[in-house]
Amino acid sequence: MNRQNAPREGYEVFLWFHPAAVRGNPYAQYNLGLLYKQGEVIERNDGLALKWMKRAAQQGLAAAQNHLGAMYCNARGVRRSDELAAWWFGRAAAQGDASAQQNLGLLYRKGRGVPQSHDSAFGWFYRAAEQGLASAQNVLGECYLRGLGVVASHPLAMAWFRKAARQGHAPAQLNLALMYRRGDGIVADDAQALCWFRQAAALGDPVAQRYLGLAYAHGQGVQPDPERAVAWLERAALRNDTDAQYALATLLAAGHGSGDDERALAWFVRAADRGHAQAQYCAGAMLASGRGAPCDPGRAFAYYVRAAEQGAANAQFSLGVMYAKGEGVPRNEARAAEWYRRAAQQGDASAQNNLGVLYANGQGVPHDDTLAAYWYQQAADQGHALAQYNLGGMVNSGRGVERDPLRATMWMLLAAGADNSSHQPRDSAPGKPWASVGAWGRVLAGRVPGGRRQRRPSPGH
Q: Contact, 372 vs 392, CB < 8 A?
């Protein structure tokens, strides 16, 4: 159809079908319903689409029955009714309509309009897949992969994914790639995974584009290529893939892809506003330090709160620091202790150390040397240098623990020799300048009887 003449020719198609539909021809009624439903050659009208689809469906036309079921399922031109959707899908499925069989299977899987049943869903998916419907083959592969309505089987899952993938079905290509990446029932193969990620990404699948970008970023099945990583991640990010937005921002913040802090912050904010907890934390961190935008403690605090309330330990720790210092919020040592505790209970070593400091000094919490030593111990066991130093001081003076000069020396030496690149406290004084004796500290640690390193159960508050 010539594009310049498309409106006229489209209307001529409408005029061709309309008289036949009025006379009761089910195929004309179906095609007229499609024209109203699609709204490409005539103005979209869901009410008229429903009217003509129903007339064709009532005459037994399976394709019309399937479309009518979809209209009831999606509330197009009519109030949603899962029961009527299932009824019409069932009539079309019984006639062998593959799309209706898949749609009926999906209703059984979700328990919409019919009793929830993975077994029934699997049966309908299988019938549709056997007819070569790629989307049904992909869903059937998911059944075998997850053991839904059938015994789980990685080989059969891969076989069905491959059938759909070879038909150019992007979700199946993605599923096949993920099986190769994870090594589901086979030896993991990053090169094969990359091949299928590429095909799905080229078809516009944002998740595949994200995985392809990450493969280039980390050198999985291909030589690392930050420029291509950024390009693919940006494609996915522009299609509102939240994880891609976060990954893209992370690469840009690290200076890849001609990245800059302003662009990185913009993508962190987009992902953060879509609820990504770590993006919320990173947006807060950049705003708190003035990267990508002028320093804004108040805005940073707001992002930290959103991430912390989702359980992000690093954001909880940062909130503790802001309350302790009075940055972006009035100083409140009790609130600082509260947020430190929440992060500490998740294993955040810096929060454990800082909580220990508060208990040792009675800041925001009652003075309690036993709890101070407990939290120092938790952080020290993770290699936190300042916590090791603080614990050494407690053990040397017998505060909260049994006095033990040998064990105190051990912790002091471990603190001095700690790898500060991985355990440097995020909000604490720098380590002591004794790094050259770290090996001696490790030897000494091996000589201290385990029973003398008192471990207490976690406090009940």
A: no
The distance from CA 238 to its chain's CA centroid, rounded to whole angstroms, is: 16
Token couple for 441 = 């500290």
- Residue 83: in which H helix or E strand, if any? helix 82-94
Q: How far apart are CA 235 and CA 225, in angstroms?
A: 16
Instruction: Give the span between the Cα atoms of 394 and 376, in whole angstroms.
Output: 9
What single string gives the DSSP state of each residue in 11-77?
HHHHHHHHHHHHTT-HHHHHHHHHHHHH-SSS---HHHHHHHHHHHHHTT-HHHHHHHHHHHHHTSS
pLDDT for the residue numbered 7: 54
Residue 455 has pLDDT above 90, yes or no: no
Answer for the pair 306, 280: CB distance below 8 angstroms, yes or no: yes
Distance CA 179, CA 313 (A): 31
Encode pLDDT of 166-180 as tens digits. 999 999 999 999 999
Name the strand (E) or helix (H) holding 211: helix 206-218
Distances (CA, A) of 408 to 6, 146, 294, 396: 86, 53, 44, 5
Q: In angstroms, what CA-CA distances link 21 with 9, 18, 27, 62, 382?
A: 18, 5, 8, 17, 76
Token reading at 218:
């980390």
- Which segment of 29-43, 181-195, 277-291 scores lowest on mean pLDDT? 29-43
Q: What share of the chain is helix, strand, coil (3-state, %, to 5)?
A: 70, 0, 30
- Report pLDDT digits (tens) over 193-206: 999 999 999 999 99
Q: Give the other-Cβ count within 10 Å of 128's Cβ.
A: 26
Exposure string (b/e) for 130-139, b if CB count within 10 Å is 16 or more?
eeebbbbbbb
C-alpha to C-alpha distance for 388 and 405, rounded to whole angstroms: 14
- pLDDT above 90 covers what percent of the chain? 84
Q: Is the pTM of this model over 0.90?
A: no
